[in-house]
Specification:
The complex is a heterodimer.
Chain A lengths: L4 H14 L4 E9 L4 E8 L6 H6 L16 H10 L4 E7 L3 E9 L11 H11 L4 E8 L2 E6 H8 L7 H19 L5
Parallel strand pairs in A: 1-5
Antiparallel strand pairs in A: 1-2, 2-4, 3-4, 5-6
Helix pairs in contact in A: 1-3, 1-4, 4-6
Chain B lengths: L4 H10 L13 E6 L2 H5 L2 H14 L5 E6 L11 E4 L6 E3 L4 H13 L9 H5 L1
Parallel strand pairs in B: 1-2
Antiparallel strand pairs in B: 1-3, 3-4
Helix pairs in contact in B: 3-4
The chains are: A alpha+beta, B alpha+beta.
Chain lengths: 185, 123
């Protein structure tokens, strides 16, 4: 498995992008009272057939041609299940895919969330034609980043323009600090 | 909460300047492998280091992007530099520090950093 949940998110969203998604919704929710950390990734990509959906959690199944191992989904699933959490994928061919992973927050094997802002920033800035709706929630307080809102203001100014790229990172960091008070997750 | 006011200010200050930054066929493409193997071996910090360096040094002829599995998983993190008219250069086992060297030596000064290339690694 990877070292941080933020890297798993980066990995899974790359699948969505390979599936030609134009909108990827990512939500990270932490509830200390419920002892839960949940991650939901939904895309409007090409989706999977029933047969593909059945095989996707198999590490020896992949749709790429360079290798015959596909570890991203099985790793993410294992990361959730070893904390006593939950994992599910639903998908419809031609519609899209949703992955839900739930982690028991206090479990000793629950890996840290890590640098989630780097992940979101990297995804936005290197996939300029894809829209992202990122929601971060901590104990009921939340904020969101919707690239569609950004695009309405920016017009045709690209997301990887230095000033915009810096703004996106600051937006993510400041808002996260306001929502979770710097709590180490 | 940080608001979107700054974005509006950026937009206003960029009015009429877009033409200067449009991508053309002379762009040098720097491609970072970001499949599971790449991510697991530390490609994200390499990508961040490259993007930041290109930004701060104002290298407007360089585009940094990511790609999926290149098929050489044990050499990840991999960075490919693709310059129009030149042979593709594949750097392997990259770190943020090596990436900065590549930016200075290769992207700015035009000298391939041979010791980090795949030819050197395979021997």
């Amino acid at each position: 498995m990877l070292q941080e949940l933020s890297l798993h998110i980066l990995d899974i969203v790359n699948n969505s992008i390979r599936a030609n998604a134009t909108l990827v919704e990512i939500s990270v929710c932490i509830h200390r009272d419920a002892d839960k950390l949940s991650i939901v990734i939904t895309d409007n990509g090409c989706g999977m057939t029933k047969e593909q959906l059945q095989k996707v959690t198999d590490p020896f199944y992949t749709t790429r041609t360079t290798r015959d191992i596909g570890l991203g989904v099985p790793f993410f699933r294992q990361a959730a299940l070893i904390t006593g959490g939950d994992f599910s994928i639903t998908s419809e061919s031609g519609v899209g895919t949703t992955i839900k992973a739930e982690f028991r927050l206090s479990h000793i094997d629950r890996m840290p969330l890590g640098d989630i802002n780097s992940t979101i920033h990297t995804l936005i800035v290197t996939n300029k034609l894809v829209d992202f709706l990122y929601t971060y929630e901590f104990d009921g307080r939340s904020y969101h980043l919707d690239t569609r809102e950004f695009r309405k203001i920016l017009g045709d100014i690209p997301m990887d323009l230095p000033e915009v790229s810096t703004f996106i990172m600051e937006y993510l960091e400041e808002n996260q600090r306001e929502v979770d008070g710097g709590y180490l997750i | 909460m940080k608001s979107l006011e700054e974005l509006r200010a950026i937009r206003e200050s960029m009015q009429g300047q877009i033409g200067l930054r449009s991508e053309n066929s002379e762009q040098i493409r720097v491609v970072v492998g970001m499949a599971t193997c790449g991510i697991a071996s530390g490609a994200r910090p390499v990508l961040t280091a490259l993007s930041d360096a290109v930004l701060t040094k104002g290298l407007s002829n360089v585009t940094v992007t990511q790609t999926g599995c290149i098929g050489l998983c044990k050499y990840e993190p991999i960075v490919e530099v693709i310059e129009p008219g030149k042979e593709k250069v594949t750097y392997v086992k990259m770190t943020p520090e090596k990436a900065l060297e590549v930016v200075d030596q290769h992207l700015i000064k035009g000298q391939v950093v041979k010791k980090y290339t795949i030819a050197e690694a395979i021997g």
